[in-house]
Design goal:
Radius of gyration: 19 Å
Number of helices: 5
Structural class: alpha+beta
CATH topology of the largest domain: Arc Repressor Mutant, subunit A
Order of helices and strands: HHHEEEEHEH
CATH superfamily of the largest domain: Winged helix-like DNA-binding domain superfamily/Winged helix DNA-binding domain
Number of domains: 2
């Protein structure tokens, strides 16, 4: 986007395309490394600046993560599952809670971002194994 907030820059378009086509939730570093393969002249500051602008413009969303770098995601309505042990971030589609949240709040909301923390199947299995092995001693 230019100073006037109108034109989308070449790098912003490429970053937006990467995020919208990604099956995962990339960090700024991952986006930079992927973009650098096709655009060797790109620098990290350009990626961070474009990510910030794309977020402000509502074209992507930032998913803050505890104890690890933020991830970037497409705008399409969905929620997230986060494994408390390994940090794996997965998409999930719950029923839209907007009306229920507005009713409880007593006024309209612009949006919400739902992250549900749990143990992913792999970590849950490891916990069971660890618990079981501990009982065997």
């Amino acid at each position: 986007m230019d100073e006037g907030g109108g034109t989308v820059t070449k790098y912003a378009k490429l970053i937006l395309e990467l995020i919208n086509q990604s099956k995962g939730h990339m960090t700024a570093e991952q986006i930079f490394l992927k973009l650098k393969k096709t655009e060797p002249g790109v620098v990290q500051a350009t990626v961070y600046n474009n990510l910030s602008t794309l977020c402000k413009e509502g074209m992507i969303r930032k998913v803050p993560m505890e104890d690890s770098p933020d991830r970037y995601d497409r705008i399409q309505k969905h929620d997230h599952l986060v494994c408390k042990k390994c940090g794996k971030l997965s998409d999930i589609c719950f029923d839209d809670l907007t009306k229920d949240l507005e009713k409880q709040l007593g006024e309209g909301i612009l949006s919400y971002d739902l992250k549900v923390f749990y143990l992913c199947p792999k970590c849950r299995e490891e916990e069971k194994r660890r618990y079981h092995d501990g009982l065997q001693m």
